[in-house]
Amino acid sequence: MKKTSNTLPLCLLTILLLSQICSGIKWLALSHTPTSLHINQTQHCKLLPGLVSSQAQLCRSNLELMQTIIAAAREVKKTCQKTFADMRWNCSSIDIPSDSSKYRPDLDRGTRESAFVYALSAAAISHTIAQACTSGDLRLCSCGPIPGEIPEPGYRWGGCADNLHYGLVMGSKFSDAPMKMKKAGSHANKLMHLHNSEVGRQALRDALVMKCKCHGVSGSCSIRTCWRGLQDLKDIAIDLKTKYLSATKVVHRPMGTRKQLVPKDIDIRPVRENELVYLQSSPDFCAKNDKLGSVGTQDRQCNKTSIGSDSCDMMCCGRGYNPYTEKLVERCHCKYHWCCYVTCKKCERIVERYVCK
C-alpha cells in the first residue's frame, strides 16, 4: 500500500486552530464585508470572516442581527482611528485583514492599546444593537422600557428609548464568545479581555442620558416629552480614551484559591470595575517594528503650533519634520437670496502642512 503524507492535513489543522484561538476581536474583520451582501440565509454566515463557532451559531439563529453587527464593526474601526488621530498609536492596527489568522502584534500582546480596542468593541456592538431596536431595524426588539420614576413637573416620559438591555445581552453574547472558548489563549489574557470588555459596557451604561423634545405654543416648551437615549459612540470613545491614558498594569497571581489580575505596583487593592487594565507595556510607536506592531510615525501629519500629543515634537519623536503646501478650494462670500437659496463663490487658499521625517 502506498504511504501517504499527512503534512497537508496538519497544515490545514494549524490554520484552523490559529483562526479559533484567542479571536476575541477578530470579528472586526466584518468591517470588510461588502455592503451588497445582505445576510438573509444561514449559508451566508459561512461567508463572514473572523467568526468563531459560537458566533457563527449566533449568526445562523439571528440572521437579522448580523447586519447590525457588521455595522458595529465598521463603526469601531472609524471611531477608534478618529479618536486616536492625534497620537502616535493611531489605531491603524484595528484594520484587521479578513484573511488574517491572528491580530496585529499590538493587539495580541495584552497592551493598553488592546485594552482600549476590546472596551470600545464591546461598547460599540451593544450601542449599535440598542439603537437598531429603536429605529425598527430589528424585529426581535423594540423601544426600551419607560423609567419607573416620576418625572419633574413639565416633563413626561414618551418617545422611544434606546433598548440598552437588549443591546447589552446580545452584544456581550456575541463579543465575549471567543474568550469563553477552551482554546482562548492564556488565562491571564482571557481575564484581561473580559474585564476590559465589561469596562466598555459600563461606559455605555453611563452614557444613557435623558433626551427631551419640546412642545408648546410658539415653541414655548411648556411641556417636554423625554426618553432615555445613548450618547454618540464618539463621546463614549473619548471617555474610554481617558481610561486608556490612566490604565493600570496588572499581573496574574494567586489570590485566595485562584489566580486573578491585580495591580502590579499597588496590589494591596483589587482591580476596579471601571478601570482598563493591561499586562504588557507598549512600545513608544516612534519607529516601525513589525514584531511589536508599531507602524512608526514617519510621514504622519503633525501640528506645528500644538503642545499636545499631535505636536511635531511629540509626533515625530524628535526626528524633525518636513513642510509642504496644499491648495484648498472652499465656498466663500455666500449670499442668502429671498426666498430661499444661497449662492457662494469658490475661493482658493494655500495652507502649510507638516509631516514627520
TrEMBL record:
The protein's matches in InterPro entries, at most eight in alphabetical order, are given as: Wnt, Wnt_C, Wnt_CS
- What GO cellular component term, any one, is given? extracellular space
Could you tell me where this protein is found in the cell?
Secreted, Extracellular space, Extracellular matrix
What biological processes does GO assign it? animal organ development; canonical Wnt signaling pathway; cell fate commitment; neuron differentiation
Family matches, as PROSITE patterns: WNT1
**Cited Pfam families:** wnt
The job of this chain, per UniProt, is described as:
Ligand for members of the frizzled family of seven transmembrane receptors.
Record-given protein name: Protein Wnt
Organism equals Salmo salar
Origin organism lineage: Eukaryota, Metazoa, Chordata, Craniata, Vertebrata
In the UniProt record, what gene is named as encoding this protein? Answer: LOC106567945
